[in-house]
Amino acid sequence: MTDRALDPIILGHNPFFGVDHLSQERGNEKAKRFEDVRHIVDMIRHCDGLGVQGIMMSTHPRAGGVCEALEREPSLREKWRLYPLVPYIQKYVRTANEKGLVNVVVDTLAQTSLEQKANIFLRAGRTVLGRDLREALCLLIDVEMVPFRRLPLGAVFLHDALTDLALGLDALSLLELFRDHVRQTYKVPAGFATKNVPRLRGELTRLGWSEVLVMASFNAAGFYMNPSAERCAEAVREPGLTMVAMNTLASGYLAPDDAYRYLAQFPAIRSVVVGVSRKDHAAETFAAIRRHVPHAREAAPAGLEARPA
């Protein structure tokens, strides 16, 4: 496990990849703006100057290019940590329909060394021969982690589609497998993205988990908070949870000060994931987080904690 705590502010990847939960048109505009990876790196460099040094990253087709660009930036490479969200479900659905699932894996492995390819194919052969589901799932994680192999990691999160599927199928051993594999292989905490914090919290508590790292939507508008904002708030107030809050601005519906004033009442919120597409928006948003969220204020670099919006 890493000794460094979670980054209190984590840069979200959605604007860079054209994801907007309320407006596809707005999402397309952002996708065009950041189509050139140099513009993404420029925004990351700007956020670095504002004291933010963590970024959430799925295995979106553009992720590999972003990671390669970061590797070429000595001033960023050593300081910034990635928080991978795996697997990128949309990639498997869309690309598998276009090219076939085998080609999805081949494209991913194109980024690896010959030694890494040989190791993965050897493990894949053992999995097929032994029909080992557990090994197959570990293999999927490792294939997904390929783009991030040369950069520092903060934690690795399981995509909410798989977390919630495991809950629905009562296959909680898969969550334990993910946790143990990430800890042992990548030496960082394993977290779980979910669309239902109370259910995940309840099921893992029933299994005897005393500490759970969860990432989920959490905001004053109740946006994407299931089954209700009230139930989610109750679950987050209970001890034993480390919460990474996302969709905190409710996709632009909430003003930063209103959004983060609400989060201030929940000590379990140790980190905030927020996407920014403009430099002025970054400064305003980070300053609001530090004004209101205790963990962000305590970890703010000198001179930034009181920076005006």
How does this model look, in words?
The protein is α/β, with parallel strands linked by helices and 309 residues long. The radius of gyration is 19 Å and the shape is globular. The protein has one domain: Alpha-Beta Barrel (TIM Barrel). Helix 14 links the parallel strand 7 and strand 8. About 3% of the residues have low confidence. Helix 3 packs across helix 4 and helix 6 crosses helix 7. 52% of the residues lie in helices and 13% in strands. The longest helix has 17 residues.
Task: Walk me through the topology.
Layout: E1 9-11, H1 14-17, H2 24-33, H3 37-49, E2 54-58, H4 63-71, H5 74-77, E3 81-86, H6 89-99, H7 101-109, H8 114-130, H9 133-144, E4 156-158, H10 160-168, H11 172-186, E5 190-193, H12 197-206, E6 212-217, H13 229-237, E7 241-246, H14 256-263, E8 269-274, H15 279-292, H16 294-299
Parallel strand pairs: 1-8, 2-3, 3-4, 4-5, 5-6, 6-7, 7-8
